[in-house]
Amino acid sequence: MSNETDFQEKLQKGYNMLTSNLQELYNKDMDDRRQLEQIQKDMAKCQVKDDSTKESSFDQDKLRDTMQKLCVILSHDATKLTLACKPPRKPQDAIKMVDEMSNTLYRIVGFYYDIPLNGQYMINTYRKAYKTFIDRLLRGAISLLVSFMDSDRAAACSSSSSSSFMLSTAALWETCKSASHLPANNQQAVAAEWKVLLETLDDVKNETNDMVPRDGEMNDDHDSGIAADEEDEDDMAMDMDVDPQVARQCVSLVGLTYLLFQKIQKRCTFSDSLLAQGKAVAEEVDVMVSKAYDLEPEEMVVVMQEYVNKVDSLIKVASNASNQENDSVWFNMCATKLSAIIGST
Question: What pTM was computed for the model?
Fold first, then answer.
């Protein structure tokens, strides 16, 4: 008959296995990527044609269905483990459920490794979404195991204070339920990240709109009889002002970029390359807006041109991702308008 000491040892073994899987989740990807790069180099030397971008037999939707079913099983395992561990604890039943939960997680992780690496099937964003999900599952399960450990083991295993078993169980349940939101394919995965980029651009758009002073805004304080008491406050306010012409250009550039992102969202076939270009634009827009507060107008011309170059690269990829002739015309007009905006100095 198993006792509490046996149960604590089983928790420790389960913890060690899960933390090892968590570490391997990142180390294995790095090793596989290096191996893939070496294979591609060898193929190039031998002048072997790479057919890896052809349609693959890997079923993305089937994997999602499998993951969702396994997560239902995992949530049941977590519930049974919690019930077995509630006072009065049943060590033998609890040990059995640690094994079952660990085995379910092992299957889930194994199916994740079935997802082909980027460079073979062009589903890098899909793989990233599942990797993030697996990370959350492993961390949730680790937290649950730690919550049942004695104080000495828990202190040695956890870098922070461990949660109660009820909170840990609930958190793991929520992660399992979120499997219903996993992408069915790479396009869905990219679409989810594109939505985040649009939200970021919307925030930047609001910020740039605030750059342009409204009519009478510059004199509101004086007109109301309020004057600054200290010169440094006036200097600070002046330092935060953006040149009016630069501010108007930033507003136009960001506003048009936002429309471009919306157009792509509605009309283009999402891909990893499209997302990569979109992220590059999102990063560059932050650079442009932040520098607008510090640089002189003539210096901002160079910054805005670099930004437009990034957007132009996105437009080229977007044009190839849409089969509609009208869309290509719109994208070309967008590129022309961007150039016209920075030319209006």
Answer: 0.82
Let me know the angle formed at the C-alpha of 279 by 187 and 39, rounded to the nearest 5 degrees. Answer: 70
Mean per-residue pLDDT of the chain: 85
Residue pair 213/244 in contact by the 8 Å Cβ criterion: yes
Tell me how far apart the alpha carbons of residues 104 and 225 are, in angstroms, rounded to a whole number: 71
Distance CA 263, CA 333 (A): 13
How far is the C-alpha of 270 from the C-alpha of 58, rounded, in Å? 18
164-183 per-position pLDDT tens digit: 888 999 999 999 999 999 99
Interval 186-203: pLDDT, tens: 999 999 999 999 999 999
Q: Which residues contact 2 (CB under 8 A, 6 or more apart)?
A: 91, 92, 95
Which CATH number applies to 187-214+238-343: 1.20.1410.10, 1.20.120.140, 3.90.1150.200, 3.90.1150.10?
1.20.1410.10
Confidence band of 212 (pLDDT split at 50, 70, 90): confident
Q: Which CATH number fits domain 4-182: 3.40.50.150, 1.10.260.40, 2.40.50.630, 1.20.1420.10?
A: 1.20.1420.10
pLDDT at 153: 83
